[in-house]
Amino acid sequence: MKHFLGFVKKEFHHIFRDRRTLIILFGIPVAQMLLFGYIITTEVKDARIAILDHSKDETTRKIIDKLASSGYFIIAKYLSHEQEIADCFRQGTVKEVVVFEPDFARKLQNEKMASVHLIADASDANSANLVVNYTGAVINDFIAKENKSSAMPLQIITEPRMLYNPELKGVYMFVPGTMAMILVLICALLTSVSIVREKELGTMEVLLVSPLNPLQIVLGKVTPYIFLSFVNVITILLLSNFVFGLPVRGSITLLLAESFLFISLALSLGILISSSTSSQQMAMVASMLGLMLPSILLSGFIFPIDNMPGWIQWICYINPTTYFIVILKNIMLKGLGFMSVWKETAILAGITMFLLVVSTKKFKVRLD
Amino acid sequence: MRTILFILQKEFIQIRRNRMMLPVIFVIPLIQLLILVNAANMEMKHIRICIVDNDLSSSSRLITGKFSNSKFFTVQGHTFSMEEAQRQIENGRADMVLHIPEGFERNMIRENKAKAQLLFNAINGTVAGISNAYAAQIIAGANREIIMEWYGNSETQAGAAAINIIPSFWYNPDMNYKIFMVPAILVLLVTLIGMMLATLNIVREKEMGNIEQINVTPIRKIHFITGKLLPFWIIALVMLAFGLLIGKLIYNIPMLGSLPLLFVVAGIYLLAMLGFGLMISNSAATQQQAMFVMFFFILIFIMMSGIFTPTDSMPNWAQTINYLNPVSYFMRIIRMILLKGSGFMDILKDFTILLCYGITVITLAVFCYRKVS
After folding, report:
1. ipTM field
2. Per the domain annotation, does A367 fall within a domain?
3. pTM above 0.90, yes or no
4. Tens digits of per-residue pLDDT, B263-291?
5. B interface mutation test: which of A163, A274, A278, A291 has the most B CBs within 10 A?
6. May I ask the CATH class of domain B47-158?
7. Is B36 exposed, middle or buried (0-12, 13-18, 19+ CB in 10 A)?
8. In DSSP terms, which residues pair with A74 in a beta bridge?
């Protein structure tokens, strides 16, 4: 035990004496959290659209005003010919063109039906879909209001209630994901170089001849980083609460305990990478390349897992970040207790144990 | 010129001798390209709905029937208790609840209006908003049918006007999100690898102590930087070509524009990114530091590039910062050239900015490198 404590102390010295890395380490999560909290959102806001109005009557003008004042769109251009649509799209200046058919108001009045053509630049299918949906919603809302004023019989009134996030703020969705992503990347990057660095600099020999066993070396390497990462967890949680107004509706103790579990997992993952590579370069390339995009794309952070093809969903379910995001949302936003996340917790704990055992086994006590 | 060739030779030998590196930088990206492309789907289908129909009248059945037939909704279950339905939302089994209270049809006939309640899990505000719009549309449709049933088929009596919304999706009528994601993810992978290798390069020599040997040679600064840059530049371009080929073969991505133009732009873009990496490498003391600094920038570049989330909806200050983000320019250009067939004139502005960017970065990288320690 005494040996172990000495080793941990040595590791702490290593970290604290490297001032630059330390500053980077605490600065990065804060800066990224602040930036991403504001910029990552799938909401449609100020999307640039163009109008091609063949009718130019009062109703179409009302609809255009409504689109412009909705906050979703900026009307960037008024076109006068069908041919101009292709030019607009090729230059990438607008995302959608709204085309009103001739005699729009008259048809709406007499035939009770008029057509709007929404032409979207679907080279980005996702955002085209969103923009068309939003435009449709604004137009439908307009016609519903018009109908209401003309006293219709047998009306069905729908009352939507938005649970957990009544103002439909984007941060509720993206802050938990950002937290998980930053934590897993920082933690894994941190520890992935720790063992391999000693190998590369030739100091591994000294460690191997010491009375410490592999498990102690691995744990000793992780321990200081657990403290550092935990400080990061707390800063991130404080930021999300005070800057982005995310509530913590559930138990804070539980939230901290789960975060602790998650950083241990990420750190063990780093250790595994570290003990299976031979140079710092390799370790970093592997952890960055292997973790960055999957933790963004395969975790339900931005893209809902339900939408993915079946076999991709399976990959998402071996990605620990997925579970942590669920845990964060359940505890922070839904205010649920441990019973709602025990399964996810058990899985995270299981993966952590597995990673620690494998990296200890992989740890070679002899130099090649 | 000969000096550069020697440095190039040295760098290539170094890369080739590193047995693990080459497979890693080719295989990991390839696998990711194949997998990740499928994941980036924002299309709203299968919104899971839990129906609480306490009225069980013909009108309420008409409404619930419309939901089960809609391609946007998947009926997750029926129940008679709101608590049970709410629990379904809590534990994530349903995304929304439709509640038709008892006496719905009676109210509609007697008081001319009836209320139906919709409950959404709104943590993802965008999805909740769109689900609400779809649901409202379905209910409005059902409402029209009910009115027609009561008042006969004459439309004038029904009185409700409707606007027929016809969407059409240009360049990609099947709404295949993959053809957009293949170029985007490819750009990310190529950037990540090129920049990572460049970033770790000089600082590695520093950390190992080899840099002194180079510093005492008559190599000029510009030669040194060129020699360090070129190998990774070539690797990145080869990867891009390889990735495009895979995209074409497996996902059949369209290539409407000119490929030579694309590669010219890619070359300039990579020059800027790799030069940026070398700058980081120059100023860092250890590989770990260099890596963290690069991680900081690359993640910001990626998240702001408009590949996962639209750049239009970012706040104005973020859009201003984004003018400094080379990834966002190239992301836009590659999409325009491949998917829309944009020509040189269409991308002129972005191209010029990227070119200036590249020249500035390379000049800075040469300028920042010090042979004197």
Report:
1. 0.85
2. no
3. no
4. 999 999 999 999 999 999 988 888 888 98
5. A163
6. alpha beta
7. buried
8. A48
